[in-house]
């Protein structure tokens, strides 16, 4: 189990610039290195209404674009609530970018009242993400948002 309080302090130190692009790249690398049993970590950004566009990530090449009505990322974008899926193959509309992925955690990121994007974590392990993982990753997203000057989705 990860020590998310320690990880939050480490991420705060790592994100030493306000640049959102640098911070997304650093956050992805940090998560892949520090969170066990991940096979993909990355951001999808809302750059046009109803669609997520691939941003910085770590892992195999990814699906792009993702409409809001498809997959776990689309569900998180539409609902603006974290989606924690124990078995992605049982999720209606799941987008299979990597057949090895078995579970997924997607945290929406808001900029003011607008959806900015999502942080997507995939694992080859079924039911990889617990309540504690969800709360910890949501805290790490808060650290990322506080450290970054996020452009508005229209930019």
From TrEMBL:
InterPro entries for the chain: FRMsr_CS (IPR000614), GAF (IPR003018), GAF-like_dom_sf (IPR029016), Phosphatase_reg/MetRdx (IPR051330)
Domain GAF residues, every copy: 6-155
Any one of the GO CC terms: cytosol
Database matches in SUPFAM superfamilies: GAF domain-like
Pfam families: GAF
One GO molecular-function entry: L-methionine-(R)-S-oxide reductase activity
Family: Belongs to the free Met sulfoxide reductase family.
Protein name: Putative GAF sensor protein
């Amino acid at each position: 189990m990860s020590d998310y309080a320690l990880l939050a302090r480490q991420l705060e130190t790592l994100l030493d610039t306000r640049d959102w692009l640098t911070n997304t790249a650093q956050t992805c690398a940090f998560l892949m290195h520090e969170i066990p049993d991940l096979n993909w970590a990355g951001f999808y950004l809302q750059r046009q209404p109803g669609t997520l566009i691939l941003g910085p990530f770590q892992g195999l090449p990814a699906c792009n674009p993702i409409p809001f009505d498809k997959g776990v990322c689309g569900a998180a974008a539409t609902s603006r609530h974290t989606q924690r899926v124990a078995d992605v193959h049982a999720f209606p509309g799941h987008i299979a970018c990597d057949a090895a992925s078995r579970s997924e955690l997607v945290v929406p990121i808001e900029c003011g009242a607008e959806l900015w994007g999502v942080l997507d974590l995939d694992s080859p392990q079924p039911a990889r993400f617990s309540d504690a993982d969800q709360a910890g990753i949501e805290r790490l997203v808060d650290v990322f948002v506080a450290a970054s000057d996020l452009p508005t989705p229209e930019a």
